[in-house]
Specification:
This is Nuclease SbcCD subunit D. InterPro entries: Calcineurin-like_PHP, DNA_Repair-Maintenance_Comp, Metallo-depent_PP-like, Mre11_N, SbcD, SbcD_C. One of its GO terms (molecular function) is 3'-5' exonuclease activity. This protein is of the alpha/beta class. Helices cover about 30% and strands about 20% of the residues. The chain folds into three domains: about 1-265, Metallo-dependent phosphatases (Purple Acid Phosphatase, chain A, domain 2); about 270-325, no CATH class; about 330-385, no CATH class.
Length: about 400
């Protein structure tokens, strides 16, 4: 069976205030063309179809058009909700839509109810695990462990139990939206940390033939059978080195697997430039970035006059301007920036406690309280999006 694995469309999202709807429409055209050109048997979409819980009407119309075209091509599609989606909104009409071959899996209670498809070698069971917010689904799934690992383990236990009573030789595919250990994140994914831990081990998914992951925006292989497709478009400058692709997976009769990357159309390349303004304006080696979307980090010791206007003359698609002035190592501002670099909210808060106490950091109990507060704020944000 030939499977096209994609995820993280983020329909309705902009890139530094540049609307991306036309680029998203071009990607979906490419998706449908790929289905036909490569004789794809099933499309799997591993979450974050939309960029927010209440997407703009233009994004909904684009999604509706994509569903009609996939259904018209006669190719089944299995799709789950991600942490950016409203599971309830995305799942509206799922029972009716399934009659057209579009299978939406947005309810955690259905994680062990597969979409069963057939090929010449027998059945393939597709299990959809939508994004599982631990605080909201832990009790319903009967999870014994805390955080993402606990709820995903409980969901996968249900999947393996269902798979165990199916005919011998049934192959299996799991769609999941999660941060799996070994994956490389970028700046454009929303933090899903719970209890100070975001990543779950790949071993949670043992026992199935292929795991189609969503959430991380870089196409990558965690193991031979556990892969991220990544987002089809770049949504932050941290993705400037990404090769945007989909996975074309051939699942053989005995569960053997072959994988190939299919490139996605690039609306405009990304470039991250760093240096003093005069150097960026004069360096002939940078001429190739004239048509790129540019993020420029200026290192001038003092802020130059009209930097954005001057950059736009050479790089007309400059979208982001960052100031990171060169400073001596002993400069207190330089050392403060270095202390903050790469640190999350919890670590910054613990550093602040140590600072006001003259070097004495928080106790284990205080760390637990801080972590609980940050988790509550993040969970309130999630609940607020779901209720909107």
């Amino acid at each position: 069976m030939r499977i096209l694995h994609t995820s993280d469309w983020h329909l309705g999202r902009s890139f530094h205030r540049v609307p991306m709807l036309d680029a998203q429409a071009a990607y979906l055209d490419h998706l449908v063309e790929t289905v036909r050109e490569h004789a794809v048997d099933v499309v799997v979409v591993a979450g974050d179809v939309y960029d927010r819980a209440v997407p703009p009407l233009s994004a909904v119309q684009l999604f509706d058009d994509a569903l009609h075209r996939l259904a018209g091509a006669g190719v089944p599609t299995v799709m789950i909700s991600g942490n950016h989606d409203s599971a309830r909104r995305l799942g509206v009409g799922a029972g009716l839509i399934a009659r057209a071959g579009i299978h939406l899996r947005t309810d955690p209670a259905d994680c062990a109810t597969p979409v069963v498809l057939h090929d010449a070698h027998g059945e393939v069971a597709f299990y959809g695990l939508p994004y599982l917010e631990p605080a909201l689904v832990r009790d319903a799934l009967g999870a014994t462990g805390a955080g993402h690992e606990g709820v995903l383990t409980a969901a996968m236990d249900r999947v393996r139990a269902d798979l165990s009573v199916r005919p011998e030789g049934t192959r299996s595919v799991v769609l999941a939206h999660a941060f799996v250990a070994g994956g490389e994140p970028s700046d454009s994914e929303r933090d899903i940390t719970v209890g100070g831990v975001a990543a779950v081990p790949a071993g949670v998914f043992d026992g199935v033939d292929y795991v189609a992951l969503g959430h991380l925006h870089g196409c990558q292989r965690v193991t031979d059978r556990v892969r991220y497709s990544g987002s089809p478009l770049a949504y932050s400058f941290s993705e400037h080195t990404h090769r945007k692709t989909m996975w074309l997976i051939d699942l053989g009769p005995g569960g053997d697997l072959a994988a190939e990357r299919v490139d996605c159309p690039v609306p405009r390349p990304l470039a991250r430039l760093r240096g003093r303004l005069d150097a960026l304006l004069e360096d002939p080696a940078l001429e190739g970035h004239r048509e790129a979307w540019v993020e420029a980090t200026l290192t001038d010791p003092t802020r130059p006059d009209e930097p954005m206007a001057r950059l736009l003359e050479r790089f007309p698609h400059t979208l982001s301007l960052v100031f990171d002035p060169e400073r001596a190592p002993q400069d207190p501002l330089a050392s403060y920036a270095q202390r903050l670099e790469g640190r999350d909210d919890q670590q910054v808060a613990e550093d602040f406690v140590a600072h006001v106490r003259g070097g004495s950091g928080p106790s284990d109990q205080e760390r637990t309280v801080l972590r609980a507060v940050f988790d509550d704020v993040r969970i309130d944000d999630v609940i607020g999006e779901v209720s909107r």
